[in-house]
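Appendix B. Raw example, untouched.
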Amino acid sequence: MFGYVRIRKPELLVKDYECYKGFYCGLCHSLRDTYGLRGQVTLTYDMTFLVLLLSSVYDLAVKEEHKRCIIHPAGKRRVIRTEAADYAADINMLLSYYHFVDDKQDEHSLAASLGVQMYRGQSRRLEQHYPRQARAIAEGMQRLHLLEQEDCRNVSALADCFGRMLAEVFAWKEDGLADFFGKPDIIWANLSILWMLLRICRKTPIRRDLTLIWGLTVGNYYRRSRSSC
């Protein structure tokens, strides 16, 4: 369901790719610090994009470190974090829970059932902290499930469910920018058409080749933040 928003590495400059990896590792460390290993295993490229976007839009201060981790114990890795990383980590956990709920409804698998049990407690806490986002995710996933049960072939209708959910998730704070993210649902619905096509093709080889290029956000934001320090 998630993990389709990926960089196209050949299109990035080396320094931009290193910057992207730093933000990716930053989100991973935020997940680890708050949720432990079960948080780290939910790490997605999609939420890395959310960190980059919100960090750029809000021009957030950057904290850069070099750390070791369980995945890369041999040497220290560049870790770039902003305030948005903690928000993305929380949303990542919410989305992961509903991902397992969706898989349980669709596939009735043991793994999905275990995932629901494992992440339910954290999800309940996050629902209290982010009621608007949690409600949008739950309602969007439920509408999407019902449409799938009806064997709906209207890609726009399917994408609209996920688009409205994304609009609420990307609206981080209750401010003027929330209107930008939250009102034009058609923008997110159109973007979500790509997600739905990827979902349809998730069991075919085409999935490996459908990637998005968003390196410009990576390098430009980080360079601007560093130059303003």
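End of appendix B.
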